Give the backbone structure.
Amino acid sequence: MTDIVLLSDLKELLGLPEEEHSLDRRLTLILTGTKKRLKFLLGGLDPPDEMDYILLDVSIIRYNKLGSEGLSSHSVEGESLSWSDNDFSGYMDDINAYLDERNKNKRKGGFKFL
């Protein structure tokens, strides 16, 4: 998926109107950072389109943490929120499965997308 489509999808998921452009720079920075981190977790491989759901989900997590960076929990009037130290923790099984499949196919001399 192109970066423009990812930005559009992210805005849709966040409930922002498509014509709203005041947050585009911030959302683009979040998407770019998320993509770089996923690439690192993939051992330097560019994330395949099949992992766009991870980029979008983690970008939403990071957007919702803006202004709360560094906090692990927050409690106000009986409402308690907590954040994971690793925004990708819920996706590590998927990431590892992708890497395992890629390595298995690489040993066989071929590669197939999941």
Notes: Helices lie at 3-14, 24-41, 52-64, 92-108. The first strand starts at residue 73 and ends at 76.
